[in-house]
Amino acid sequence: MSSKNSFRLKIPGIANNILLIIVSAITFIPFYLVAMTSVTSERSISANGYQLFPEEFSFEAYGVLFGKGSSVLDAYKVTIFVTLVGTFLAVAVTSMMAYAISRKSLKYRNAIGLFAYFPMVFYGGLVPFYMILIKLGFKDNLWGLIIPMLVNPFNLFLILNYFRTLPDALIESAKMDGAGELRTFLQIILPMSGPGIATITLFYMLAYWNEWVLGLLLIENRKLYPLQYLLRQVMSRVLFAQNSTVNIGEIPAESTKMATCLVTIGPIIFVYPFIQKYFIKGITIGAVKG
Amino acid sequence: MDVKNTVQTDPIKQKFGRGKVNADASIKFEKKKFGSGCELVKNRFLYLMALPGIIFFVIFSYIPLSGLQIAFKSYNVVDGIWRSPFIGFKNFEFYFKSSNALITTFNTLYLNFLFIAVGTIVQVILALMINEVSNKYMKKFYQSVIFLPYFMSWIVISAFMYNLLNHQYGTLNMLMKSWGFDTVAWYNKPEYWRGILTFVNTWQSAGYYVVIYLATIVSIDSELYEASKIDGANKLKEIVYITIPHLLPTIVLLLLIQIGKIFYGNFNMVYAIVQDNGMLLPVTDIIDTYVFRAMRTQGDFGMAAAVGLYQSVMGFILVLVSNKLVKKFDENMGLF
Q1: Considering only CB atoms, which chain A residues are within 8 Å of B130?
Q2: B166 versus B5: which is more confidently predicted?
Q3: How many whole angstroms separate alpha carbon B313 and alpha carbon A117?
Q4: What is the ipTM of this complex?
């Protein structure tokens, strides 16, 4: 190839990269801004608003968040509990159901599959759903944040497809060795389903961590606010990050809002590089193949 | 001739496990003693494993369907669901006679339309651009950055927007001030919000779809590209004649799936960002937020249920229609 040709090929390549860098910058700017404004002193925010770079650094917002009377610590406990317990139960219930459907020897498996599938297509609406939640006693109850999310049809079919790729011979040989269904599932199928289980585990964890509508519908007790709902209350000034009877004027409100936002997304950003590939795999398998 | 010997030489018994050959060589099977109950007993552990999931769906997806009758009643807490007075379609009348029906339906459909149209264009272009990047580390970098917003909750995103758009402190206004422009009270100006919501929605979801499109592009046979190079095609021709045609099935499929859901607004997004801001309602009030308000703020369960039912029925019809279209396109790709 002549050098003129390869030069011509380079220009679009460089332009392409420049454009993508701009897009990346635009995508990333909100994260940057929230981080920077959370360590800006409240004084400089009151005077000059949120700036691209802090005029005056201050960690006072974080002092409020992790000091005494902080609602953030309570919310963290709530969210961590809900996420861990919820994810464990959700993965258990979902994968067991998927395993049953995947077994060709099960006569009613198609009926069960359809049964799980129909809600994806017809949704009864918010009102009946809310009434059931209340009837089940989920108001101000942490289990109300856990149980309504136990089975996500998308995840169900994801792990179902994964189980289907496992050879039947595995189950048959387990059967011949005299293993019951549960043992086969726990000791043979699950260990072989690492990637699939990891994928739906992460999907559920993200869903639980980010969930706020259930908190909105069910939780009135401030001590039980999940993290996202707390952030919402902090943002709308309904609640300050600190419950103590400190003079409200002394609370660094604007920087605290940003700091609260940052601690809400903190864990996700930390684990993002590690979990990304599972989401990519899960989405491509789930979405493309329907 | 009875086949009861222990050595299974009889081919029928070998194949079917049981059976007798009658005198005239027809086959007669022993009748199962317990019918379908035998199946439930035989595989009881499997059904037990499926049971928690089944109960889950019964409670959260099927029982609520019986609560839909509230849509036809004047619900009050004292009488409960079953004894509240039946009022026929009055709830629906209330909604449809008011301008709310038109506004919320239009907003729901139009916003979704914008999200889908703008979103798809941006996603496809981004996927094509990322695909053209030669350095594989940069490729991964771009994809990672674009995918990141997908992991944020809408509350977090609403905080991002607050940071940018707040009238008094927002970064955008501060920048405008420093450049000599007047500040804008973004949260009070409904005319900007279709654009703002579309932009934010694209920002949040582009990564998800880019992942799918990139996976599709990667699966295109590289020999096609090599062959086209030999025929003298440049980059642009490659994209137009090879990449895009191969992407088209996926694009159409995703479009149809999204269109199927066009009657369902993104409550999570809109309510997190707009909250109860009355000024923006004419532009941002979708059916879902209207139902929520009717239920929580006004306590009108009957009407909220009616509107919800309307949405579900319309949504369901659209899903059926879009699924039919998907199947016309490719037999295997329908939802059902």
Answers
A1: 20
A2: B166
A3: 17
A4: 0.90
